[in-house]
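Ticket closed. Logging final result for Outer membrane protein assembly factor BamA.
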Amino acid sequence: MDQAQRAVMAQGKRKARLMRSAAVTVFLVSASLSVPVLMQAEAQGYSLSQVSIEGNQRVDAATILQLAGIKQGAAISGAQLNDAYQGLQNSGLFEEIAIQPQGARLLIRVKEYPMINVVSFEGNKRIKDDALGQVVQSKSRRAYSPAMAEADAASIAEGYRAQGRMAATVTPKIIRRSDNRVDLVFEITEGKAVEIERLGFVGNRAFSDRRLRQVLETKQAGLLRTFIRSDTLQPERLELDKQLLRDFYLSRGFVDFQVLNAAAEVSRERDGVFVTFTVQEGQSFNFGQITAVSEIEGLDAAEYEAALRVRTGGVYSPAVVENNIARLENLALQKGLTFVTIEPRVTRNERTRTLDIQFTLVRGQKVFVERIDIEGNTTTLDQVVRRQFRTVEGDPFNPREIRQSAERIRALGYFADARVEAEPGTSPDQVVVNVDVEEAPTGSLSFGASYGVSSGVGFNIGLTETNFLGRGQTVGVNVSTGTDNTSSSITFIEPAFLGRDLKFKFNAYYNETDNQNASYDTRMIGIVPAIEFPVSENGRLELRYFAKQSKLSNMTLAEDNNGDGDILDTDLEVNPDVDGSSPILFRDAAREGLFSSGVGATYSYDTRVTGLNPKGGVLLRFGLDYAGLGGDIESVALSALALAETKVWNEEVTLRAVFEGGALNMLNDENSRVTDRFFGNGKIRGFEPSGLGPRDLVTDDALGGNLFAAARFEADFPLGLPEEYGISGGLFADFGSVWSLNDTAGLNNVVDDDFHLRSSVGFSLFWTTPIGPLRFNFAKAMSKQDYDKEQVFDLTISTKF
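Final structure:
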């Protein structure tokens, strides 16, 4: 590089330094000049001597000034003017707002939102106008607010979403009217219901998709999707489904079960939803060693261990553990020991897949229930809610008992929602239990229809109130008619008679039959008051009194064929071709209307619902009725039923066995009447009602018997069809008989009342439909008598609407 080039470069560097220095100088000068200007703008204000308001019609000036936060004659800054504008804007009363300072005068010019003339809905079919009117906040004769109208549109769309119509759109529009009024119209496009096309599971090995779908509240769309609303997606229901899956698996020993995810995907056409539950089952555990120990000085745990009802080797279930904790706590209370807490300590054995449970008795914290506050029960009396608690004010506080009380309150069915929570009381050793409930409708008016191959078409109407006058009482009136029968009844139930766990029941009935599968008519009227109470964890006892009158009529009289003046004994043997009712029926009818009065008792033991075996249970029922407390009849009637059911093959198949029997014994050499005897109707399938048992072989009249016994074996199973169709199948085999009469004098050759074993086998088709459950029975009698009447096919349906 020569000297000339170096000189040029040096000159360029000097020019660059001069330009940077000039820029810095200009910036500093500008900044110093701008500070006073900004300070002056910030400090600028207005001294107002007058505030003028224009354009208001319904909102007075004082209200506008209050909303703006401006006072007459006060100084106001630019920031305060902005605040005043925001205050008026946020009031939602004005469509246009202008604030203009004019020297010492401030002008506020407003244009009010119009008044709503009417609110209407267009395009809605699935949800009626009345229901939509309760959803929206915009009302007639109120100021129109665009923000509120948009919120209302969103609420309407949410209502359609709850019905599965996710594509529904709602557009609020206004129609201008005179005098600053508008009609608010919500234009609705309902769209089609987006149904759940598939409920799937990922990660399940122990149970099939079919079995798990039975657990869920959400259902797949089926054949009758037009009538079924549970096949639409409701996100809040998915949370319930997750809990139902957890409870299902935990009750079967899967202690590590988790629902990892519940995803819902909408199809590309937006006409269907695919819901997938991703689960992690883990392994199933059984109960291992079960012990009880005490950490309370002087308290022997041997008696408590003897009270445990846990079977070593049985499938682990949290419900079993909870049940035994409650059992031990109750035992401690019976012994006068308070603040005894049972802690279940679990030892996990991975190799044997068992859980050792040690029920440890420890001294709990001394906390008492200060009071129980109940809110939200506008109809139901406090005492109805309070009697669901086993705890009262002043008792030791037991969190487990409070949770169980909450479950009992929800199980009443009187409330749409019930929350029970405990919070600290006025001192550290006290708590307050708050009960917050939301009332629900408890009355129902039902119209129904039924059909049976033998009974024909029938109709019924019923009025039932399960929380009568808010007292928790049930009152019901029911009237039903069939092709050949009419029945009516009145029912009253007091669930807490005398303030105790004592149920009082009263039933009155009036029944008539008109030649229903018989050659005679009947009329029966009676009353049955009863009390029912628990005698064990799953056992209940009912004690009752009954008074009834029965009458037979409209029988056909035969001729006196042997000339002895008595047409009720041997005439049929002389001329078996006569046309008349059985002499036994005439003898029954000759006694006119008989009145019977007596007492009875029924003991029932049922573990199907309250038991701890999730796969099945048993039902035992024993009844005894004595008639002879006055009246015209003295008799003893016995009845017994034993039912056991369980699920096998990964709970896909239900096996059921039922054994049933009854005996009627007349006292004082009296004869039983046809209205009191057994007919075995429905006990043995494959035979018509009154189609088996003692029969007059000449007149073909079914006479009924004093004894009956039946054994039924059933298996219910899926048919491989999609479960959303609600169709399943079953196989059955029935055995039994009806026999024994004590009034066959002179008719030994024409009346057969001996014991003859009947049996049948068949196939059942079950179809759960929105109009009611349908059952198709196809039966074949395998062993029978020549005079028995078979019924190969039977269809039953019953529904309420």
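Residues 3-43 form the longest helix (41 residues). No further action required.
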